[in-house]
Amino acid sequence: MSIFLNPPIEAMTAYTPGEQPRDKAYIKLNTNENPYPPAPSVIAAMNAAEIEDLRLYSDPTAKVLKEKLAALYGLKPENIYVGNGSDEVLYFLFLAYGQRGAAFPDISYGFYSVFADFCGIEATVIPLESDFTIDSQKYHGLNRFIVIANPNAPTGLSISLGDIEGILRTNPDAVVAIDEAYVDFGGESAYPLMAKYENLIVVRTFSKSRSMAGARLGYALGPAALIADLEKIKYATNPYNVNRLTMRLGEATVDAEPYYQAKCAAIIRTREETAKALKALGFEVLPSRTNFLFAKSDKIGGGELYRKLKDRGILVRHFSNPRICDYVRITVGTDEQMAACLDAIRAILEESL
Ligand code: PMP
Predict the structure, then answer these.
(1) pLDDT at 19
(2) CB of 205 closer than 6 A to ligand 1?
(3) Could you report the per-residue pLDDT of 288-334, keeping only the tens digit for each?
(4) Starting from the edge strand earliest in sequence, which strands make up the sheet with 145-149, in order?
(5) Nearest Cα to 32, choosing from 266, 268, 209, 292?
(6) How far is the CA of 205 from the centre of ligand 1 (A)?
(7) How many angstroms separate the alpha carbon of residue 52 from the centre of ligand 1?
(8) For residue 232, how many other CB atoms are within 10 A of its CB?
(9) What atom in ligand 1 is closest to the CA of residue 90?
């Protein structure tokens, strides 16, 4: 770092993304990407003419994409904000609403504490219960910005809409963001609660269930007033935050809803079969509503399993946080990828006997 960097930025610890290695071809089960390609109609939406049009700026109002998303959810375009990945949406939410502090679980998406730090926001970090569930009562009446991933990561566990409603009801003067990055893999979306609560914002992404992690497209569903706040921040920082190609691909993706629903169903099937196989190998596996499994074995530590799998060309995610360092998080890939992963785990367990 240079001597010129602003001291608060110098002092903070930034986010460490999962590995995106280029050294060899791994079976990549470490950053919860979708193993299936975008729908054929989405691939067909990209062509030379679209690329030629890159000389033009993208539509800062994202009119067509917002209209399509609005139709999908039975909302109005003014209830939708689109951003450069949901990371950007979440960052803007911390900027917009964090003045009185921000509350989130100790074990959750690692970016929340980074955003709090970066924005100079006091973080109220609420420990998960010993079984990694969220006790929603602990979020009642906090009177500050709250963000909860539902389902949570890296645990894969979800909380009920009743619990979320309790948090919304008891924090009428604070914004509650529900980060639904993984909701399409068996969770229940909170967006219908928008009809009752003015303080709910739901954050979603095309990265996981829509096979578009590399295109960077996320969005928020919320009351028009909250969406206008996010738009203001966008127009104060980067009005063309979603590039033309991504915008076009996003539109085609919304039109291909049945394709993605079928792929999510396939991932859920593979997840359940993989969980069963891991349990048969003696793993403890948390019940996942996501496209990943969080598992530990008393025969091998999380860090060792991660390293040995990597040696065999399989990447999973390991977190050094002491509460979860015994676990690995394994993204659900195709049946073939999971069979290879399970074979490798079997071999590693045998060799360490
Ligand atoms: N929320 C959660 C819970 C996540 O795991 C991720 C993915 N790392 C994101 C948000 C951000 O996803 P993206 O920026 O790709 O939309």
Answers:
(1) 84
(2) yes
(3) 999 999 999 999 999 999 999 999 999 999 999 999 999 999 999 99
(4) 80-83, 218-221, 200-205, 176-179, 145-149, 102-105, 123-126
(5) 292
(6) 7
(7) 30
(8) 12
(9) 10
Q: Which helix H or strand E contains 296, and what residues bound it?
A: strand 292-296
Q: Are 300 and 325 in contact (CB under 8 A)?
A: no
Domain boundary assignment for the chain: 7-37+258-352, 55-256
Task: Give the residue from 151, 150, 203 showing the smallest Cα distance to 175.
Answer: 203
Residues 163 and 134: beta-carbon distance below 8 Å: yes
Residues of the chain with pLDDT under 70: none
Q: What is the pLDDT of residue 219?
A: 98
Q: How far apart are CA 9 and CA 344, in angstroms?
A: 42
Pairing between β-strand 218-221 and β-strand 80-83 as defined by DSSP bridges: antiparallel
**Torsion over CA of 208, 211, 217 and 223, rounded to 10 degrees?**
-60
Q: Measure the CA angle with vertex 156, ends 340 and 297; round to 5°.
A: 55
Q: What is the DSSP letter of 288?
A: -
7-37+258-352 CATH: 3.90.1150.10
CA–centroid distance, 109 to ligand 1, in Å, is: 8
Q: Check if the beta carbon of residue 238 is closer than 8 Å to that of residue 83.
A: no
Distance CA 319, CA 325 (A): 6
Tell which residue, 195, 208, 204, has the closest CA to residue 165: 195
d(CA 127, CA 107): 7
55-256 shares the fold of 7-37+258-352:
no
Q: In whole angstroms, give the CA distance from residue 220 to residue 77.
A: 11
Compute the distance from residue 87 Cα to the ligand 1 centre, in Å. Answer: 6
309 CB under 6 A from ligand 1? no
Residues in the chain: 353
Q: How far apart are CA 285 and CA 279, in angstroms?
A: 7
Which residue in the block uniquely carries the two structure tokens 């409603």?
Answer: 165
Q: Name the architecture of domain 55-256.
A: 3-Layer(aba) Sandwich (3.40)
Q: Quick check: CB of 85 below 6 Å from ligand 1?
A: yes
Predicted model pTM: 0.97
